[in-house]
Amino acid sequence: MASAVVASALAGGDHVYFNRPGVALVTWNPDLKAVCLESQGWADTSESQAVLDAIIRALRAHRGSRWLLDGRKMKVIKQADQDWITRNWLPRAAAAGLRLAAIVMPTSAVAMTNIDDVARVSENGIDVRFFSTVEKAAAWLTGPPGPPALTAA
């Protein structure tokens, strides 16, 4: 995976759907054919919902099926927000076409509990994989399809 593609994923790609410094950046990256979310810190409930709704808008606008979450700077998500993600957002994201989710693991051990919650939700038909770097996540998203599984790479 060319580092320019990865840099583009984090720098904004071609289309910005949400940009609040210190919270998150959501873009469409045409090279990856993916929605990219760079978590930049803590988000309150309305910001969190706006970020996730921006992902759905980008998926629909580009008829996309891939999502790259750079969660390295992610902070813990309140349980009520996590419940909203599980019950409301994930089914809507799947209905919008989301099929592959590459998640770069947070550096915060507390935020890891939120990632574990996402891993337990596979009934929406979304293949979720976990990675230690953006480069590995991007390579998986653009590589040949493999069997669905929840794995860490």
Walk me through this protein's architecture.
This protein is an alpha/beta fold. The chain has one domain: Transcription Regulator spoIIAA (2-Layer Sandwich). The protein has 5 helices and 7 strands, in the order αβββαβαβαβαβ. Strands 1-2-3-4-5-6-7 form a 7-stranded mixed sheet, with helices on both faces. β3 (34-39), α2 and β4 (66-70) form a beta-alpha-beta unit. The two termini are 15 Å apart.
Shape: globular
**Number of helical regions:** 5
Uncertain ranges: 1-9, 148-152
**Rg from alpha-carbon coordinates:** 14 Å
Q: Under CATH, the topology is which?
A: Transcription Regulator spoIIAA
Average predicted local confidence, pLDDT: 83
For the record, the count of structural domains works out to: 1
Please give the oligomerization state of what you see. Answer: single chain
Write down how many β-strands occur, each being a DSSP E stretch of 2 or more residues: 7
Main beta sheet: 7 strands, mixed
| CATH architecture label | 2-Layer Sandwich
Strand portion: 15-25%
The H/E string reads HEEEHEHEHEHE
Structural class designation? alpha/beta
The percent of residues in helical segments reads 40-55%
Distance between the termini: 15 Å
The strand line-up of the biggest sheet is 1-2-3-4-5-6-7
CATH class: Alpha Beta
Features:
Transcription Regulator spoIIAA, seven-stranded mixed sheet, 5 helices, single chain, 153 residues, 7 strands, alpha/beta, globular, disordered C terminus
Task: Lay out the secondary structure.
Layout: H1 3-11, E1 15-20, E2 24-29, E3 34-39, H2 45-62, E4 66-70, H3 79-95, E5 100-104, H4 109-119, E6 127-131, H5 134-142, E7 151-152
Parallel strand pairs: 3-4, 4-5, 5-6, 6-7
Antiparallel strand pairs: 1-2, 2-3
Helix pairs in contact: 2-3
